[in-house]
Design a protein that fits this description.
It is built from eleven helices and no strands. The protein has two domains: 139 residues, no CATH class; 111 residues, Cd81 Antigen, Extracellular Domain, Chain: A (Orthogonal Bundle), CATH 1.10.1450.10. The chain is mainly α.
Length: 336
């Protein structure tokens, strides 16, 4: 019986003896950090599987790994489909006005160089140059529209708020300007008459006034301020003048300045101030520009009002689109 028990427990005793011998080897070995089997083949996975592991020689906070840029989470939740439509509608809406502003700016710059206002360095006359209005209007429109494009494309709230502030300022200025023009229309008419009379007197002395007067007379089909006889006040067109322009008017007063040709006849109005009105009316316009302008404004009051309302509606539409996009961006950031 004793021999049978020894034979039965002999494998168990050998196993215990082997385990004690291995433990003794571990206790006598150098105290070095041991790696798991996973750490040998894939160190990065081992670090991720053991979040409480620390670097060698460090005692404290767990090891932190830098997250690559392409797997980082955005700072806020992305916009939904409706908000994305509003975003790109904002972008294309402002892009249209950005191109229009650049076109107006190009017209103003072309006008300044065409009249050599900049080439001749006549800086003192730039303030009265009508093309300067196109330059400023185009520059402001293109700049504000560019802010709207960049703010919508990159979801930049600062640019969108700056666009909204500019639109609100422009709408207020336009409404106040319209009210002032309507309430002071009689004083403005008198000031316009005085300004045109100055342009008639200094027609040959100022290239800008000459350009403005020619454009007004050819566009409105008029001559002079109140009538064509106003050109008698000009020193060069007066009948007592010894020059070749005596008793004449500018070519912009002529009914047919080209005289059925392709080249402008600058002398088509010479001598017309000494003719009878019946004869002169077949060569030049007899009516003045101020009465003609009053009639034109009365006839086109509805169209001018429509253009003004369209401009206000367009600006308010831009304001509403930008405000909607700002609200969507703020809502997406609160949900993150």
């Amino acid at each position: 019986m004793r021999q049978k028990l020894v034979t039965f427990f002999r494998p168990l005793l050998r196993g215990l003896h082997f385990q004690r011998r291995e433990m003794g080897k571990d206790e006598t070995s150098a105290l070095l950090p041991k790696r798991n089997r996973v750490d040998i083949f894939c160190p990065s996975n081992a670090q991720s599987l053991s979040p409480n592991s620390t670097r060698e020689g460090e005692t404290g906070s767990p090891r932190k790994q830098a997250i690559p840029w392409h797997v980082r989470k955005p700072s806020y939740r992305s916009l939904n489909s409706l908000s994305s439509c509003v975003k790109y509608l904002n972008f294309f809406w402002n892009m249209v006005f950005f191109m229009a502003g650049l076109f107006i700016l190009a017209i103003g710059i072309w006008g300044l160089f065409h009249k050599e206002s900049l080439a001749s360095e006549r800086i003192t006359y730039l303030g009265s140059d009508p093309m300067l209005f196109f330059v400023l209007a185009g520059l402001v429109a293109s700049t504000m529209s560019l802010l709207g494009c960049m703010g919508a494309l990159f979801e930049n709230t600062r640019l969108l708020k700056l666009l909204n502030g500019g639109i609100i300022i422009f709408v207020i200025m336009e409404v106040l300007g319209a009210i002032i023009l309507f309430s002071l229309r009689h004083q403005i008419k008198a000031s316009l008459r005085d300004s045109l009379m100055v342009a008639v007197l200094r027609y040959q002395d100022d290239a800008d006034l000459q350009f403005i007067m020619n454009e007004i007379q050819s566009g409105l089909q008029c001559c002079g301020v109140e009538s064509y006889q106003d050109w008698m006040t000009n020193l060069y067109f007066n009948c007592s003048s010894p020059g070749v322009q005596a008793c004449g008017v500018p070519s912009s007063c002529c009914l047919d300045p080209l005289e059925n040709g392709t080249i402008l006849n600058s002398q088509c109005g010479f001598g017309t101030l000494g003719l009878e009105e019946v004869v002169a009316q077949s060569i030049i316009y007899l009516g003045g520009c101020v009465p003609q302008l009053s009639r034109w404004l009365d006839n086109h009051a509805g169209a001018i009002s429509s253009y003004f309302v369209f401009l206000i509606v367009t600006e308010v539409g831009s304001l509403l689109l930008a405000s909607k996009l700002l609200a969507d961006i703020a809502f997406a950031r609160t949900l993150y």
